[in-house]
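Milestone M4 deliverable, item 7.
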Amino acid sequence: MAKNDSIIIDSIIDERVAAKQPSDKRDEVFEYFAIEQILKDENLTSDEILGGSIDGRNDGGIDGFYIFVNGHYLTDSESFFWPKSNTELNIHIITCKQHETFKQSPLDNLAATLSEIFDLSIGSSDLKGDYNEELLRCRELLKFAYKKVSPRLTSFSIEISYASRGDTTIIGDAINSRGSQIVNITEQSFAGCNVNI
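Output delivered:
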């Protein structure tokens, strides 16, 4: 982000805090704004953006968890219209911090969480981390979707996003290395998956 971009973002956040969109807390408004921008091509409603929000206690460092099957947002496995062929599965994992810079600790948390929750052979009750209900619900939805569409999967991608107010041109080597580690963890969990961070 360029130096003056943070001024623009701060003014947008200020307006939304004043209007309580979706909250009067700066960190929650920043998180919503960041997720909204990351997923802008998905055309989600406000309720859908909030529906994928994991933020809170025991979130494993994940603020947003979104699953798309052939471009359709998956919220409920029972009422979803599952494709019978040519299936694309896209996952978005998002962490947001309203910091002035990018820091390593959010990626440390994310690496630890993803190495565990992406191992779908482990039952939710056997996970070592203490994760909230929303994260566990999203993990189970991912597990169900992955099993359901695997036989007809033509494309599978996982997008991992770390949003901050920091300048992306001065991200430190340690942060880049941790990002590469997260990509490796994800690729080792899902063969043939296109992973971006």
